[in-house]
């Protein structure tokens, strides 16, 4: 079994994986604030197509790994808000957290992962979105301990996945992948990716659907999503966890906030617990790689300045 045995190996693998991730994100254009905002009212479905494709490829890749190796998933348990009953008590933290993230994505035109691609591509104001993410991590680090000491907030029910619930470890993922493929096909038939890229002022008329070059201004969302989905394979094989970026906010904050608060380990233990394993440093190196990969992609296509000048010219995205 392949595995990352040192922090140096984790950082190197993270940089490489992140660079490919950032390159594909920039090529898909789903990291553009306008693409993210218009996805929220379904007037542009590039983001939907890309992430559903990544889900299919990544899910089937992990399924194959589990089938033929000793690697197994460690799904995250649902998080409770500590009050209410039934479904809301079990999943309240996920519901409120997801809704908060959705509002933040519309306001900022970014999410925890795409903001790093925006930094690399020269998107205006991305640096402020990123700074806000770190401030949020600090606030939550102290908030989490305060609330946990006074309530049952954060209690977790046993993690469940649909393949286990339905006792269909192969049939359910395959059926779900087929369902997602149908959704992607319907979305593409309703509006092709060239037309959607055109609405973002990206010229996609000069290349074929699957004949993508690294210097092309954009790739099909399906192609970019396939690349990102494939990245789940080395991540899962080497570390036993999926590719992600959110934990990097807490890791970086935990590493440096101790210089401000010498008692951070007792005042905000949440910030400290994400600085202890190779996985945490892997994700920190991933986001650095995303910035570099996105910069390389936008530089090759010669449109980095385009983002800086025109990406915020769509104030009526919710109309």
Quick summary:
With 319 residues, the chain is mainly α. It is 64% helix and 0% strand.
Summary keywords:
mainly alpha, single chain, 319 residues, disordered C terminus, 64% helix
End-to-end CA span: 52 Å
Beta fraction = under 5%
Number of strands: 0
User: Number of DSSP helices?
Assistant: 16
Structural class: mainly alpha
Q: What is the global morphology?
A: globular
Order of helices and strands: HHHHHHHHHHHHHHHH
Mean pLDDT: 85
Structure description:
The chain is an all-alpha fold and 319 residues long. It is 64% helix and 0% strand. Helix 1 crosses helix 5 (114-121). The longest helix has 24 residues, at 278-301. It starts with 6 loop residues before the first helix and ends in a 9-residue tail after the last helix. Residues 308-319 have low confidence and may be disordered.
Topology:
Elements: H1 7-28, H2 33-39, H3 46-68, H4 86-108, H5 114-121, H6 126-148, H7 162-165, H8 171-190, H9 193-198, H10 221-230, H11 232-239, H12 247-257, H13 264-267, H14 269-272, H15 278-301, H16 304-310
Helix pairs in contact: 1-5, 1-10, 1-15, 3-8, 3-10, 3-11, 5-6, 5-15, 6-12, 12-15
């Amino acid at each position: 079994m392949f595995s990352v045995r040192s922090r140096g190996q984790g950082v190197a693998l993270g940089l490489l994986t992140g660079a490919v991730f950032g390159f594909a994100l920039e090529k898909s254009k789903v990291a553009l604030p306008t693409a993210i905002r218009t996805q929220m009212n379904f007037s542009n479905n590039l983001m939907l197509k890309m992430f559903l494709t990544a889900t299919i490829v990544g899910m089937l890749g992990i399924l194959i790994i589990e089938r033929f190796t000793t690697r197994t998933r460690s799904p995250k348990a649902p998080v409770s808000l500590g009050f209410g009953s039934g479904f809301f008590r079990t999943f309240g933290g996920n519901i409120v957290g997801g809704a908060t993230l959705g509002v933040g994505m519309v306001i900022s035109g970014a999410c925890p992962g795409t903001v790093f691609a925006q930094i690399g591509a020269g998107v205006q104001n991305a640096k402020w979105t990123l700074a806000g993410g770190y401030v949020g991590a600090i606030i939550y680090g102290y908030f989490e301990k305060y609330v946990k000491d006074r309530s049952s907030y954060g209690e977790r029910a046993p993690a469940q996945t649909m393949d286990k619930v339905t006792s269909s470890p192969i049939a359910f993922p395959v059926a779900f992948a087929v369902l997602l493929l149908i959704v992607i096909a319907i979305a593409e038939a309703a509006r092709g990716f060239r037309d959607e890229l055109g609405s973002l002022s990206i010229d996609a008329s000069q290349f074929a659907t699957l004949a993508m070059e690294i210097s092309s201004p954009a790739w099909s969302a399906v192609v970019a999503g396939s690349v990102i989905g494939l990245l789940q394979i080395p991540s899962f094989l080497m570390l036993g966890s999926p590719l992600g970026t959110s934990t990097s906010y807490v890791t970086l904050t935990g590493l440096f906030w101790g210089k401000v608060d010498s008692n951070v380990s007792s005042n905000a233990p949440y910030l400290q617990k994400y600085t202890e394993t190779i996985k945490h440093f892997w994700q920190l190196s991933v986001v650095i790689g995303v910035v570099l990969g996105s910069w390389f992609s936008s530089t090759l296509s010669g449109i980095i300045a385009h983002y800086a000048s025109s990406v915020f010219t769509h104030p009526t995205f919710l109309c």
